[in-house]
């Protein structure tokens, strides 16, 4: 009952206005209730007053939930510069950089994103969220530099497909990465087709996805398995894909 909890935290603050934990957990309750702007203001105020990495990280997390990745980047950097090396901080900064606008070039932000997400995955190797983000980041680098070798992601894709992922977005991202590199790494040719078939099994491939025109799938254009999927997609006019189960974010630790 987050509404009731928020009332109790507000009552504690009436008795002791400077009670840091009551302010923090009150902000957390607001975040759970969807009052993101109010929660962000509270976390930001605590962070400025106390310099605690917990509040910096949660301020960044709220910015992400509000669709403000540029501001989130600033808060996560403060947390990491202050010594926060949690997988959540590393992952969330890395994925924020992928969609933010900074003074760095796209290649520079993508390189930094990959480095951060790799660090996060080293610390939390079983996280499907961090695996998903590493594939996203290295796929983006492949589109920027055709000679780039996404070694980390290929290992992740191999492991994910071996365990048969049940998330539509993850399967499709695996298929895209395999298609992008299968001319250089033939062993991933069939893995990519497997991933695309797994995607179709989890939800409809839609004609709007224009499979046959995607650069990642050029290598498959004459493959009967791929042509069957394209034909099935054409028959799915108006179909909606299932909601993505994968979040790009790791919830920060409360410490």
How is the biggest beta sheet arranged? none
Number of strands: 0
Task: Characterize the overall form.
Answer: elongated
State the distance separating the first and last CA atoms: 21 Å
Helix and strand run:
HHHHHHHHHHHH
Residue runs with pLDDT of under 50 for 5 or more positions: none
Assign the structural class, choosing from mainly alpha, mainly beta, alpha/beta, alpha+beta, or little secondary structure: mainly alpha
Mean pLDDT: 85
Number of helices: 12
Radius of gyration: 21 Å
Report strand %: under 5%
Q: What share of the residues lie within helices?
A: 55-70%
Quickly describe the structure.
This protein is an all-alpha fold. It contains 12 helices and no strands. The radius of gyration is 21 Å and the shape is elongated.
List strands and helices in order, with pairings.
Layout: H1 2-15, H2 20-32, H3 36-50, H4 53-65, H5 69-81, H6 87-99, H7 106-123, H8 128-144, H9 151-162, H10 168-181, H11 189-202, H12 224-234
Helix pairs in contact: 1-2, 2-3, 3-4, 4-5, 5-6, 6-7, 7-8, 8-9, 8-10, 9-10, 10-11
Distinctive features:
255 residues, mainly alpha, 65% helix, elongated
Account of the 3D structure:
The protein is an all-alpha fold. The chain has helices at 2-15, 20-32, 36-50, 53-65, 69-81, 87-99, 106-123, 128-144, 151-162, 168-181, 189-202, 224-234. 43% of the residues are buried.
């Amino acid at each position: 009952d987050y509404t009731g909890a928020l009332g109790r935290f507000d009552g504690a603050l009436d008795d002791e206005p400077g009670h840091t934990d009551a302010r923090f957990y009150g902000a957390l309750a607001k975040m759970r209730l969807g009052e993101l702007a109010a929660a962000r203001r509270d976390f930001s105020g605590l962070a400025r007053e106390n310099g605690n990495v917990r509040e910096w990280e949660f301020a960044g997390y709220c910015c992400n939930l509000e669709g403000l990745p540029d501001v989130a980047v600033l808060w996560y950097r403060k947390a990491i510069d202050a010594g926060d090396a949690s997988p959540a901080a590393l992952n969330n900064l890395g994925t924020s950089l992928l969609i933010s606008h900074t003074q760095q070039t796209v290649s520079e932000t993508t390189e930094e994103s990959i480095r951060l997400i790799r660090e996060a995955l080293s610390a939390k190797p079983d996280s499907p969220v961090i695996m998903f983000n590493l594939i996203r980041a290295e796929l983006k680098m492949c589109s920027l530099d055709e000679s780039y070798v996404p070694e980390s992601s290929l290992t992740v894709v191999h492991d994910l497909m071996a365990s048969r992922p049940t998330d539509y977005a993850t399967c499709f991202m695996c298929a895209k990465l395999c298609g992008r590199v299968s001319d250089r790494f033939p062993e991933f040719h069939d893995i990519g087709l497997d991933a695309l078939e797994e995607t179709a099994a989890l939800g409809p491939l839609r004609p709007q996805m224009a499979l046959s025109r995607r650069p990642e799938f050029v290598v498959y254009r004459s493959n009967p398995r791929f042509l069957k999927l394209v034909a099935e997609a054409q028959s799915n006019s108006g179909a909606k894909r299932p909601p993505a189960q994968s979040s790009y974010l790791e919830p920060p630790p409360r410490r």
